[in-house]
Amino acid sequence: MLKFLRGLPKVELHAHLNGSLNTDSIRELAEKVYGAQTADFSTLCEQFVKFEKGAKLDECFEKFGFVHKLTATKQGLEYATELVIRDFAKDHVIYVELRTTPKANEHMSRRAYLQTVLDAIKSARDLYEIRVKLLPSINRGEPIEVAEEIVALAIEFASTEPDIIVGIDFSGNPNQGKFKDFMPALSEAKKHDLKLALHCAEVDNPLEIREMIKFGMSRCGHGTYLTESGYEHLKEENIPIECCLTSNIKSGTVANIGVHHLKQLMEADAPKVLCTDDSGVFDTTLTDEFFLATETFGLTRSQCIALTMEAVEHAFATREEKLLMKMQIYSYTRRQPL
Ligand SMILES: CNc1ncnc2c1ncn2[C@@H]1O[C@H](COP(=O)(O)O)[C@@H](O)[C@H]1O
Ligand SMILES: [Zn+2]
């Protein structure tokens, strides 16, 4: 099964750029861009992927600071983007939607950040034969004005790069900021045909969950704490839940893998996609996530193929791109015994 899953052409719809650098790539990045590394640095890398049992979501967010230091320069960000795309391609991911929060610092403006990632995507996608889209992220822990700037940049960049910038991601620590405050910025993005992928119900916040569902979205990130009626509503609207198994377990938002809502979604034949979230931080790959699903819930090869096809269906890609991806998946599976 593992071999089959590794070779299966896969589609990744929920991946944060700075969370998707695995420790080998972090070492490579640090060496190439910043010079040889010390023993202390190796210890930091080990700590990066270490989770104590019972870790809380807040602890995950502290981990990103380590990578953010390495991607704070143009050169670091450029190389990190290439490495992340390379690693997805290595795992036979044929299409990835990367999301990232444009950051301003002494080296770069938010505009320069976005331009750097865009340019790196353009060179890497040809090098590694993988389709790459980009969703600029709004970090809910930052001020509204920053969100407005990011939406304005996304609209502007989407007009020149419509085949890459396809939507907006709403993320960040769910214990910070209020969704309601970001609604005007998100409405503006929607008005300009950008798709919305919202982290929704990652923590138990019934009022906010209701506001988000009423507001609408194209895809729902995590959906861990949705109620029965929330699940039903998303199913009626054909809004998939981006299920990130390892992320939910390691960050403690789902008690154990056996009770993950993927099972419920499969049984209800509700829309869902399997994703990694932060393959670096959570030390996983999309293949690992599929394998975990097969081991835990007994998914068959056919069900894994169906899940991949579902991801194609819900990708923010064109009809032609979707058709090509389906053909690629079909041609692989035709060569495999089911
Ligand atoms: C674990 N579940 C999660 N829930 C919410 N937001 C998350 C997240 N995982 C990552 N991020 C968001 O993505 C950023 C890292 O990538 P970028 O610097 O944007 O490329 C994090 O700082 C956080 O804002
Ligand atoms: Zn996420």
Automatic annotation (TrEMBL):
Q: Is Acetylation a UniProt keyword of this protein? A: no
**Catalytic activity, per the record?**
N(6)-methyl-AMP + H2O + H(+) = IMP + methylamine
The UniProt entry, under Pfam families, shows:
A_deaminase
The protein in question is named Adenosine deaminase domain-containing protein
Q: Which Gene3D superfamilies match?
A: Metal-dependent hydrolases
The biological process GO terms on file are:
adenosine catabolic process; inosine biosynthetic process; nucleotide metabolic process
| GO MF annotation list | adenosine deaminase activity; metal ion binding
Q: Please tell me whether the keyword Zinc is annotated for this protein.
A: yes
Residue ranges of every copy of the Adenosine deaminase domain listed in the record: 9-330
Q: Which InterPro entries match?
A: A_deaminase_dom, Ado/ade_deaminase, Metal_Hydrolase
Q: Which organism is it from?
A: Drosophila virilis (Fruit fly)
User: Which keywords fit this entry according to its UniProt record?
Assistant: Hydrolase, Metal-binding, Nucleotide metabolism, Zinc
CDD domains, alphabetized: ADA_AMPD
Say which family it is in.
Belongs to the metallo-dependent hydrolases superfamily. Adenosine and AMP deaminases family.
Q: Which cofactor does it need?
A: Zn(2+)
| UniProt gene name | Dvir\GJ23746
